[in-house]
């Protein structure tokens, strides 16, 4: 009976320290200073983007609530005034009286 104990298999974990070619390339790339600098840059960019989105959200909240408190009631009042003018004009035309003079 022939024993295979003297043979090495290609790609076995015993001949390359426990990792394959991909593991060695990955560890070499992740240990490179260029890769580390890229990771730091990406992390910094992500932090800045997060802060920018947070402040943009706050600004949008301020603008939105200011619009609801100040501008929306004005728009509603102008619309009511326009409807009242249209109603007066319609009533005047039904009654046969001359339309009221415009205050503009």
TrEMBL record:
Q: How does it sit in the membrane?
A: Single-pass membrane protein
Note one Pfam family from the annotation: Tom22
Q: Which InterPro entries match?
A: Tom22, Tom22_pln
Cellular location(s): Mitochondrion outer membrane
Sequence segments annotated as region (Disordered): 1-22
Membrane spanning residue stretches: 59-76
Keywords from UniProt, A to Z, are:
Membrane, Mitochondrion, Mitochondrion outer membrane, Protein transport, Receptor, Translocation, Transmembrane, Transmembrane helix, Transport
Q: Does the keyword Mitochondrion apply?
A: yes
One GO process term, biological-process aspect: intracellular protein transport
> Where in the sequence does UniProt note compositional bias of the Basic residues kind?
1-10
Q: Which domain of life is it from?
A: Eukaryota
Q: Does the keyword Lipoprotein apply?
A: no
Q: What's a single GO CC term here? A: mitochondrial outer membrane
Protein family: Belongs to the Tom22 family.
Q: What is this protein called?
A: Uncharacterized protein
Higher taxonomy: Eukaryota, Viridiplantae, Streptophyta, Embryophyta, Tracheophyta
